[in-house]
Amino acid sequence: MKNYADLWLGYSEKKNNRDCKALRNIRLSGAPESDKVVINAVNELKTGLKTMLGFEPEITFGPSSAPVNATNGKEILDSEEYKISLADDAVSVEAKSGSGILYAAFDILRTIACEKDFAKTYSEIRTVRPSNPLRMLNHWDNMDGSIERGYSGESFFYENNEIVINDRTREYARLIASVGINGVVINNVNVKQAASYMITDRYFAKLAELGEIFAGYGIRLFLSLNYASTIEIGGMDSADPLDEGVISWWKDKMAEVFKKIPALGGFLVKADSEGRPGPFTYGRTQADGANMLADIVKEYGGIIIWRCFVYNCRQDWRDRKTDRARAGYDNFMPMDGDYHDNVILQIKNGPMDFQIREPVSPLLGGLRKTNQMLEVQIAQEYTGHQIDVCYLIPEFKEILGFKTYCSEDNDTVEDIISGRAFGSRYSGIAAVTNTGNDFNWTGNYLAGANLFGFGRLAFDTGLSAEQIAEEFVRMTISEDDRVVSVILSILLPSREIYERYTSPLGIGWMVNPGVHYGCSVDGYEYDRWGTYHRADHLGIGVDRTDKGTGYAFQYNEPNASIYNSPEKCPDELVLFFHHLPYTHVLHSGKTVIQHIYDTHFEGYEEVLEMAGKWDSLKGEIDDGIFGNVKERFGRQIDNAHEWCDQVNSYFFRKSGIADEKGRQIW
Ligand code: GCU
């Protein structure tokens, strides 16, 4: 019986590949048998094949036995790269490290779990190198067990201010390694209270153990750091990065920390934002803060991941020139090139905060001399709280493919974060994760597609959103073709459907303050003086052109001119950049107001349709999964209905313009 709580690793009996002779003899080369990652890879291959195909493979170590096809036999260069080749009677895996072997093992197991023809799949030698050097998950888990923006139970790392290590910890490492994650930050970026003590004796032993468990799956452990630790736990009265006393405290602290937690990869820092302390307090720059820490951790091979989410959350923007969207660029661009080589700037995908639609941050493509990492959010903070289905991989594909025009070629976000564009030493992608201690990890089973998908995409940005979704469904829910196609037809358009019934045309933020679920058209909590959308009886939108906040000119050309012009700006972002009359005609041929009405009615209808499709799977999939998602669809329908009603009636009353299709708006 398949264990559905294991998500895509719940191996079950398969029909295909049972007589594939090659699978009975797997030869591994490139890392010693005694390597702990190799040991985990071997166990995975043995149990996986035994459960799925009914036999345990014989696993041998040593040089490849399979014939090397000269044209395809590319040399393996990267430590996480692997090569799989097939002879009649053996499968051969070559790598340069345990991680490479582990990733190859999961590649093989995925092929079998998806019921693909094994011999055909590997008829050509397969050489795979991860697209991004760093592929990380950021937990926003607090030490009391709660999770900031967590929608699937409590933390499985902490309980009552203690670190918990149990079978689930190992299962988690295995689960995320199977999709290629190689770094994990286990505590909230908002490092408060007890979490400040993570870098003290109180937690060292547990953290060292945790670090080892993750290392066994090729994953490095990272911690979020409280920038003001010198004050919070050091008994000092300053956190000035240029103060000799502060620097010397950190030197001693880091020597202790890296000695006690040998597997530690480094730190993630949120400074000078939303109440967090930082170098600005001392009149210093973000580079001063990041470099001070980076210089100290360098001798331990540590890195400092410094977030660019630095803005004033109490900003008064009534003057129409002040703009939160500008903050990242304004704060970080002037120091491009000043950050030391073990600092990585982690940049949220958009300039605001994980709305369902935002332009790509202009820092990506702005910064040219700094290590960069993209930050996305699979915790569905603004995208439905893992109640509403919202498959985010299509959005991430769009972001990765965005042309920044930072150079002649190699100018997409994907090029930048892979390190290709500027030859960066460290780069990659991180997601604020969507996991918790719910039995199925992500609350809604379908939200598991975002966890799976983020890892798969980070590892191989060439995969399509559809390929990834299909793998997820086949491995996690069912291999039945009808079931697969029904679920794909739910997942693939779900992000655009969510966008249709929530905030229109890139405007964002119409959510209940604080909670960020449910509709509140005027709900923007970061502006005490007015609404985010700036709607009045004539029009709606934020003017970010040269006549407004000037934000559009943070982009390279031609993006700047495209965004600056209401005629050229893509419809889906037009209200992000422009304040327009309700009667403005979009590229679609509709007026702004008619677009608002139509998309909201459509979005709600589409949710009903998705729920109906799910209902049609009753009896064809596991009852537990069916019930779990059905219950959430019930709540999504209510949510979409409320959004549709509130948004349409709000703008009908504001504009006084009737729906041209004569539908009733209350
Ligand atoms: C959002 C979110 C916060 C979080 C912040 C961040 O503002 O609501 O909970 O702390 O992002 O990214 O740091």
Structural summary, described in words:
- This protein starts with 24 loop residues before the first strand and ends in an 11-residue tail after the last helix.
- Helix content is 34%, strand content 11%.
- Helix 18 runs antiparallel to helix 19.
- The chain folds into three domains: 7-128, Chitobiase, domain 2, CATH 3.30.379.10; 134-475, Glycosidases (TIM Barrel, Alpha-Beta Barrel), CATH 3.20.20.80; 498-542 and 579-655, Alpha-d-glucuronidase, C-terminal Domain (Alpha-Beta Complex), CATH 3.90.1330.10.
- Mean pLDDT is 95; it is low at 67-71.
- The protein is α/β, with parallel strands linked by helices and 666 residues long.
- The strands form four sheets. Strands 6-9-10-11-12-13-14-15 form an eight-stranded parallel beta barrel. It has a five-stranded mixed beta sheet with strand order 2-1-4-3-5, with helices on one face. A two-stranded antiparallel ribbon has the order 7-8.
- The structure holds alpha-D-glucopyranuronic acid.
Report strand %.
5-15%
CATH class of the largest domain: Alpha Beta
The name CATH uses for the topology of the largest domain is TIM Barrel
Instruction: Please work out how many helical segments DSSP would assign.
Output: 19
Coarse morphology: globular
Mean pLDDT over the residues:
95
In the sheet with the most strands, the strands line up as: 6-9-10-11-12-13-14-15
Please tally the β strands and state the result: 17
Q: Helix/strand/pairing class, anyone? A: alpha/beta
Pick out the low-confidence regions.
67-71
Q: Which hetero compounds are present in the coordinates?
A: alpha-D-glucopyranuronic acid
What is the domain total for the residues? 3
Work out the helicity level: 25-40%
